[in-house]
Amino acid sequence: MSHPLPKHKKYTYADYLTWPLEERWELIDGVPHNMSPAPSRRHQEILVEMLRQFSNYLLDKSCRVYSAPFDVRLPQSNETDETATNVVQPDIVVVCDKSKLDDKGCTGAPDLIVEIICPGSAFKDLRDKFRLYESSGVKEYWIVHPNDNTVLVFKLGSDGHYGKPGMYSEQDEIEVGVLEDLTISLKTVFEE
Q: What is the rounded average pLDDT of the residues 46-61?
């Protein structure tokens, strides 16, 4: 952005839409977060392989998969789409309710979100986005750690909270809870 954003203001999706397209931002509780520079080669390889496995499975299904940049607006109870103070761009998003989709992205909780950790995003992904996704009702939240080739899978319980995560390494396969009969092979995801 050509000028710094005032820190005391709480921003909305309407504000976000006025910012330059060549810059990528996220809003969490109205606070803007500049997205890290272009993802690393390793990040891209992991993203592409996971996306390929999801995409191949969903070819003849009603659910859809998207990758960043793709705006996911998560309005809270009293917010409209325009006044939403939470807009994120997860690495991978699976949406099964087509009524949530529009030309700008998705409004409301996707069924599954995958975030691939990079040094500049780890704290935000593990704390801020975790809380946001849980409170918004995202059924599955996957956190991929490229440095140690592991994945944490959080599933939303009937109490509306994520339980203890499933922990997976590069020798494992992950059964996707929100997509019947899909198993993601981490051997090919983490293969270099």
A: 97
Question: 159 near 122, Cβ under 8 Å?
Answer: no
Is 80 exceeded by the pLDDT of residue 73? yes
Mean pLDDT of the chain: 92
Quote the CA–CA distance of 82 and 95 in Å, as a whole number. Answer: 21
Question: Would you place residue 38 in the very low, low, confident or very high pLDDT band (cuts 50, 70, 90)?
Answer: confident
CATH number at residue 99: 3.90.1570.10
For residue 174, is it within any domain? yes
CA distances from 168 to 47, 99, 117, 154, 185 (A): 17, 32, 15, 12, 10
What tokens were used for 176?
């996707």
Model-wide pTM > 0.85: yes
| Residue-number span of the structural domain to which 102 is assigned | 13-190
